[in-house]
Amino acid sequence: MSPSIQSPAPHGNPVVAARRAMWANLLKEVVDRPALSGLVGLLGLASVVLVLGLLYSLAQAHAGTVLVWLRRWGAAAWAAVFLLCLAGLVPSARRDLAEAASGWLSALPQMPWAMRVWSRWRSFGLALMQAVFLLAALVSVHRLAPGDVDLTVFDWLPAFVVPMLAWLILPLLARPQATSSASRRSRSRPGGRCVARERRSVLSHWQWTDYKSRRWTAGMRWSLGLLVLLVPAGASFLQVGMTLLLGALLLQWLQFWTSSLRVVVQASSLTAALPQRPGPFVLQLCVLPALLVVSLALFVFGLAALMGLSVPAALVVALALTGALSLHAASVLAWRHRPRLTGLRSTSVLLTWGTLSQAAPFTAPLIWLGCFAWLLRLAAREAP
Fold first, then answer.
1. Sign of CA dihedral 295, 297, 302, 304
2. b/e code 314-324 from CB counts within 10 Å (16+ = b)
3. Which residues contact 169 (CB under 8 A, 6 or more apart)?
4. What angle is formed at CA 216 by the lines to CA 211 and CA 217, rounded to 5 degrees?
5. Rounded to whole angstroms, how far apart are CA atoms 63 and 147?
6. Among 321, 215, 324, which Cα is nearest to 259's?
7. Residue 358: Cβ within 10 Å count
8. End-to-end Cα separation, the chain, in angstroms
9. CA-wise closest residue to 162 among 86, 88, 71
10. In terms of Cα–Cα distance, which of 309, 301, 296 is closest to 250?
């Protein structure tokens, strides 16, 4: 370890000391890389300004409608805000409990108490931030609403009470789940069904972990920057925000898709020598890609219908996209043991389907079915 890197002190609250050392190391890295730090700061500032401008334009356009909703269905609206506040507080509190039980500082005798104190104060700060955001949004909506609308105490008081109430009941929802001895005995009991379920969860977890390790890489950040450059100069904040939102969703979907298919090749190469049937193995690896295909098809269908395309035409576009993605995933599964030319083989399959479909459009589903069945037959073979 470099002598300049800060480390937590052995006395006092170890969680606070670890966070203080982490921020000191981060500050030193920022100072050592001024150009990169300045670029990241400018991008973050631009993102904040863009989000605030988008929220301001939305509040300016719908302030009257929001006030009418608050007057008619105020209880339901604040109940929804209460659930959103809990959704923002509970995950971090549960992560703190998990870190206290299995983190790198969990062996210290003062660790459970220290993490409980740290987590409680940190969640209180988050609740205060939620309250400030709600108060600012409520004041902005009242000022931008048409007509003279007075902001009374009963209007702004729930914006402060609701996050604080969520913070008060947070310890009841963030408790670790107790496991009974019977459930522990049932989990430790060997069985074919339990082993199969565990193997399936491991493969899905592998795909999800690979995506999480690559979801915010340098290529992803540069792609978002290029997406900003493609926005026209006269676009409004709402148009820019919607473009960035759709672009970020599609980029994250693409990253998830490539990670799922990458794990197919990696898992096949690592388990090629194991005595297992290829059919169940392929089926387990197809769960996440199938969900991704269905989600993108539904998204494209809804987006095309909202953009003015007729429902049959939007359905045809969604089905064509589903067929192309299914053939691509089936190609990766079919040649997963020889991944060098997988991209070229997948492209050749898609070109074959597209060419034959152009020659005979009404036979496109039959051609797709034949190609898909042939690829599944190749995927069900044993490793060479």
1. positive
2. beebbbbbbbb
3. 86
4. 95
5. 11
6. 215
7. 9
8. 46
9. 86
10. 296
pLDDT in tens, the chain (384 residues): 444 555 444 456 788 888 888 888 888 888 888 888 888 888 878 878 887 888 788 778 777 777 777 778 878 888 888 888 888 888 888 888 877 777 767 777 777 787 888 888 888 999 999 899 888 888 888 888 776 666 676 777 888 888 899 888 888 887 655 444 344 444 444 444 444 444 445 777 888 888 888 777 766 767 776 776 666 666 676 777 777 788 888 888 888 888 888 888 888 777 766 666 777 777 778 888 888 899 988 988 888 888 888 888 888 888 889 988 998 888 888 888 777 777 788 888 888 888 888 887 788 889 889 988 888 888 877 555
0.70 surpassed by pTM: no
Q: Which two tokens stand for residue 292?
A: 């991704």
How many Å apart are CA 66 and CA 79, to the nearest integer? 15
Tokens of 213: 């390790």
Calpha distance 314→347 (Å, rounded)? 24
